[in-house]
Amino acid sequence: MRQRASLFLSGIFALVGCTVSGSGGDATPVTMAIVNARVWTGDAKRPWADGVAIAGDRIAAVGSSAEIRKMAGSARVIDAKGGMVTPGFIDSHVHFVDGGFRLSSVQLKDASTPAEFVARIGAFARTVPKGSWIQGGDWDNERWGGELPSRAWIDSVTPDNPVWINRYDGHMALANSVALRAAGVSAQTLDVAGGTVVRDEAGSPTGVLKDNAMALVDGAVATPPTELEDRALDTAMTYVTAQGVTTVHNMGSWHDLEIFRRAHAAGRLRTRIYAAVPLSSWEQLRDTVRASGQGDAWLRIGALKGFMDGSLGSRTAAMYRPFDDAPGNSGFFVNSPDTMAKWIAGADSAGLHVVVHAIGDRAIGTLLDIYERVEKAQGARDRRFRIEHVQHIAAADIPRLTSLGVIGSVQPYHAIDDGRFADKPLGRDRASRTYAFKSLLDANTTLAFGSDWFVAPPTPLEGIYAAVTRRTLDDRNPGGWFPEQKITVAEALRAYTVNGAYASFEESEKGSLEVGKLADLVLIERDLTTIPPEEIRDVRVMLTVIGGQVVFERP
């Protein structure tokens, strides 16, 4: 109800008219028009139209093709030829700079055997200078049966380079012996709270470190040169605009924010960014916002990202009972509930936006308890607390998100990825509440969709396909993995647009195609609501427009 009321109040512009007033009161002429389209507006008052007119960086009109043509004048007119136009996709959870770096790193996600894993790393090592760090990788040990890799696998093919390559979920990584020596990690290294140093029978590190223990090696990695950071950001923006993504919510660091600010000052931003920084630094963010505000339509701050637990694949998600395939292990909290409660209360008292990763059922339930206590202690206001992932939720906690006004920031691609192996650690009962999108929507939870890139591809059409079909990547569930959790195309579109804007307090500016809002939109070659669901992932983005400017156009 809270979201619907907000959207109603934001509908302050008429849906007809040929000009939009600028900040100085001058009328801006139509600069672009799209006609002969199936326009899904995201506006509940007028969900469908045939055309859109743009004036400058704003939507000037949404209506019939005939009306839009009359308004176009000498503006560029794009004939959509029956293609679908939607608001620009908002990816509500990315690691943007990391994603850009990953595009040029060693690719291990689809390595299906240990031998292939080793061969790819060795081949990549021969292409880089001696002494340079090899990072990224995104390996998936489930593809070869679940055995964790070891530094012994790769030492012989990387004698001259430190290697620090992560599992694709980002919750554990593998170091070779060169990297462990550089970081000073040895058999004498103590275990880390909220993390694990995996050891062999003799007590020596195997090279795999989980969650907080990863910091032992992270601190030894050389910071990339500024020009490589800028190149990674440019690469990331180029990649996502070709997928129809116009805004990302970056779950990152203050250093990420420096990279974004540098690009913004140089006029290089082509993707809108809502930049979160670590929850532990809430006082620094409070002072920054007080001194200089939250930014503009291209780069905004105000959000804080925290962690309750780890991940399913690493068996570090905090669960109420042990994993079925790891008796005695029920995961752990990356940060203690008391610490999280202190940080969240402080951030909330400063009016900041709290965004917290919680994957296991115990992590989700504990976080909801914290959110509830903070709201009771500090009074009602429009907080829009978020839970990132909400993967393995207990049945009793499903309605609590709605009652507390908590946004479920979820990643549908993970469902068809994890669905390949999730039954093994969870069992069928707990797995039935994994990525429970339909149950959450039935409880009136606001869902915002994202990718978690670099963990998964930042491709909203694949995300919509995943949410609508739940057909796992191994094609072993053609009718859907727990098909009762499938949702509709319209629900998935809303989660990638309207709800994404709401999840960053920007629904008055973006997320739907309404007069006066930012002209961020995407043209897709086919109407997703009328084609067979299994064909959605093969549909192509033809055009992406941000602020009235074409940032991607398929030849």
Rg result: 23 Å
- Major beta sheet summary: 8 strands, parallel
CATH superfamily of one domain: Urease, subunit C, domain 1
Helical/strand content category: alpha/beta
Low-pLDDT parts are 1-25
Strand segment tally: 26
Fraction in helix: 25-40%
Annotated CATH architecture of one domain: Roll
Alpha plus pi helix count: 19
Any idea of the CATH topology of one domain?
Urease, subunit C, domain 1
**What's the CATH class label of one domain?**
Mainly Beta
Walk me through what this model shows.
This protein is an alpha/beta fold and 555 residues long. Among the domains are: 12-88 and 511-555, Roll (Urease, subunit C, domain 1), CATH 2.30.40.10; 98-218, Roll (Diaminopimelate Epimerase, Chain A, domain 1), CATH 3.10.310.70. The chain is 31% helix and 22% strand. It is built from 19 helices and 26 strands. An eight-stranded parallel beta sheet has the order 10-17-18-19-20-21-22-23. Strands 5-4-9-24-25-26 form a six-stranded mixed beta sheet, with no helix packed on it. The chain has a six-stranded mixed beta sheet with strand order 11-12-13-14-16-15, sandwiched between helices. A hairpin with a 5-residue loop joins strand 1 (20-21) and strand 2 (27-28). Helix 17 runs antiparallel to helix 18. The protein is globular and about 80 Å long. The chain starts with a helix and ends with a strand.
